[in-house]
């Protein structure tokens, strides 16, 4: 039996992390790496110490904002980036693995934080019924290498 590729290991971890999410609408996981080392992880959900949507609002989830998105949730990418930054970890030149491609807002954060490669499993546009993955287009436009995992 051959050794698994790092892409497979990191994407499998992102999938497992997604299962930790308290969101009742979508479960997303993220893993930030540098070379062959994990430097941060995250999954989507409300900020630590606030609410667990699946426990407080198991049928509906948290209230929606004006765009129909969760009003409390941090996205998996945001949580992974925030955790790294809070712990003084530079993200310059890192690779981000996510189970869902980023929204435009997260794409701006990903680019600005120094991530230079992104691998995603599923399309955010397909999930939301949108014609275009704006986050992916933004990242590619500004030189981030983006690949869909298969």
Automatic annotation (TrEMBL):
Zinc among keywords: yes
Pfam families, A to Z: dCMP_cyt_deam_1
UniProtKB keywords: Hydrolase, Metal-binding, Zinc
GO molecular function: dCMP deaminase activity; zinc ion binding
Domain CMP/dCMP-type deaminase span(s) in chain numbering: 5-132
UniProt cross-references to SUPFAM superfamilies, sorted A to Z: Cytidine deaminase-like
Active site (UniProt): 77 (proton donor)
Cofactors, names only: Zn(2+)
An individual GO BP term: pyrimidine nucleotide metabolic process
GO cellular component: cytoplasm
Protein residues bound to Zn(2+): 75, 103, 106
Family, per entry: Belongs to the cytidine and deoxycytidylate deaminase family.
Protein name (database record): dCMP deaminase
């Amino acid at each position: 039996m051959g050794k698994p590729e790092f892409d497979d290991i990191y994407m499998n971890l992102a999938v497992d992390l997604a299962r930790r999410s308290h969101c009742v609408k979508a479960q997303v996981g993220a893993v930030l790496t540098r070379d062959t080392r994990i430097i941060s992880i995250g999954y989507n959900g409300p900020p630590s110490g606030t609410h667990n949507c699946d426990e407080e609002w198991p049928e509906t989830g948290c209230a929606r904002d004006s765009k129909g998105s969760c009003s409390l949730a941090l996205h998996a990418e945001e949580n992974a980036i925030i955790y790294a930054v809070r712990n003084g970890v530079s993200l310059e030149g890192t690779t981000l693995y996510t189970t869902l491609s980023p929204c435009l807002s997260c794409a701006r954060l990903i680019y600005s934080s120094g991530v230079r490669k992104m691998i995603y499993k599923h399309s955010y546009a397909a999930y939301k019924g949108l014609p275009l993955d704006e986050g992916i287009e933004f990242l590619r436009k500004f030189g981030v290498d983006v690949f869909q995992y298969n």
